[in-house]
Prior knowledge:
Chain A is an alpha+beta fold.
Amino acid sequence: MSSDVAFPASHSRTPTPHEASRVIRVSQLGKQYQLGARARYRTLREALVESVVGAARSIGRGGTRRAPERFWALDDVSFDVAQGDVVGIIGRNGSGKSTLLKILSRIVEPTRGTVDLEGRVGSLLEVGTGFHPDLTGRENVFLSGAILGMRRTEIEKKFEEIVEFAEVDRFIDTQVKHYSSGMYMRLAFSVAAHLEPDILVVDEVLAVGDAAFQKKCLGKMGTVARHGRTVLFVSHNMGAVVSLCSRALLLDGGRLVLESDPITVAARYQATLTAAPTATSDLSGAEHFGSGKARFVSLRFVPERRDGTTREMMCPGSRLRVETRIVCSASVDSANVGITIYDASGYRLVDANTAMQGRFVSMNPGDEAHVDFSLDDLRLKPGTYLVGLWMGRGNVEDIDGILYAATLEVEPDPQQLQHSEQFPGSYLCAFKHSVVISGPAANVARSGVRDEPGQRSAAGASR
Amino acid sequence: MPETALPVFRIEATKGWRSLKLGEVWQARELLYFLTLSNIKVKYKQTLLGASWAIIQPFFTMVIFSLFFGRLANIPSDGIPYPLFAYTALVPWTFFATGLTLASNSLVGSANLITKVYFPRLTIPLATVLAGLVDFALAFPVLFGLMWWHGVTPTAQVVWLPVFIALAFATSLGVGLWLSALNVEFRDVRHVVPFLTQLWMFATPIAYPSSLLPERWRTLYALNPMVGVVEGFRWALLGTATRPGPMILVSGIAALALLIGGAFFFRRMERTFADVV
């Protein structure tokens, strides 16, 4: 493996033949938690009463005590990780990903099973671990670095680099509580990014800062991954998992359901997500603004194929039908109804409204209206987007509006996943494209890559 | 240091009492240094009087004690001027009481760290008590000033002083370990601590001399390790003729028992810190 060559000089050690094999061995790992209020901290009185009552019961008859409700956050999970592997851990919320990472980073103890680790483990479960608002940037770099497991000499050596990467050099002697949240995050991530343990455990810390910094972070992760370090990486970002990882694990309900290459696992994960492909968002609890003469009551996303049939998930290039339901309480005359799609940092990407089509909505009290938008060929890259709703008369009045009414998940197209080789960074918009390669390279290209991306999506459309 | 072989570690469920793993704490000494440093730096950030609080607290307690106990109640002070008598005890006492209070809240206060990253947890209360040494070092010169003012010169016994400082440190950390570990699960500790330090203060010869007690009770009395500390301080600095030897021995044993017991208890409770805190 070329990773041995690329191993950074700071780790001057010769890999033994055995080392090329497994550096993490997880065997039948399980973690049990108690449900409900009892799992939280108790008061001394409760504990005393409990132990007295418990003792009395066990003397009396034994075993009549109601067992507290328990559940396995992680159940019988076994896998091995080899030196230099970059393993993505995928799963829905509550599938046990975080619990697994917490056990691997020695934060919590497993209830049963074992993990054998070879090498220094560094874990990044949060950006800014150990940062203290009252300390200056410089002080925090040292404190946080030490908490994450860096030696002082190591931090001193990398200090300039850390500050430069974070782009905060002018403010390094200012207390971090005076930092903007972006600066704070950048510095915190920068410290973490310069951690060089043998095994790195990372929990979705990439989603920090503005788009430019995110790009830098993903780039840094890519570098770490290419340098032959063993990395365990939890993410919801399938694009990042597919492009960074060499292997992936899929967890569901605390169990390891699939262990394979990232593309296969990502595809399976997406299949599990589609249980509710056309979920309806109830907007009664949302934060509305505007006069309230009429209200949006629900919102539904229906991804469709070109031929109008419903598909399981929203992928780049699908058609998206956005269905809104409006209930009127006071008469509304020729209102414009619109939707806006924002990216995760709140930038407006797409807007559509009835006025654009020369259509307006008029309603009487008690009326219920449905306004459905069809966005053909929506070329948003896989990711999470926010959808806002608005109804009113331009510059005259807001009747009802919800800034962020629902989130829209765009998933990578499973059919195209195997050809997605993402460059580090985040890209929001996709577009149909084709490639022509001419000259001496043309033969090689034609034999190596059968389908060009543009042709693939065209083929996908006809399917 | 060169890494010849990769450290191998096994993670598994542990039961009962666990080893202290002091080696791990030693390896984390740089972290301990930075934690202590930040505790010191943060302590008086955004205060008007800053580190002078370290002097103000024991000094004004001494003034009040001198007025009420020394003047009004006429409590004897082993032939030493009362203000000096009280302040000599208040300096180690303040160190003990602040260390204990801060240590007992230290784990809960570091919940964000405990749930996000692993490092030897013992460093957290240890760093808070260590940080208190700075306050101690600030309040201490005032003691020499008072001695000079009252014309008291330290005797050769002063060389023993570090032993009594260590004793105060061990007691503070020992109790701090017990309380900080308990506090993770039982937030009652937060309410117990102010009460406990207050009671403990009256169980310690700060406002009064231990010579008020009959001789045969004194050894038993010294089971409170702070008795040994205070008597030791007075003996070493002011040359009180109380012959505190047996008391200091008893206090030393008690402090050691508190510390070792506390450390093991802490390690035992440690495994659920991140789950419960």
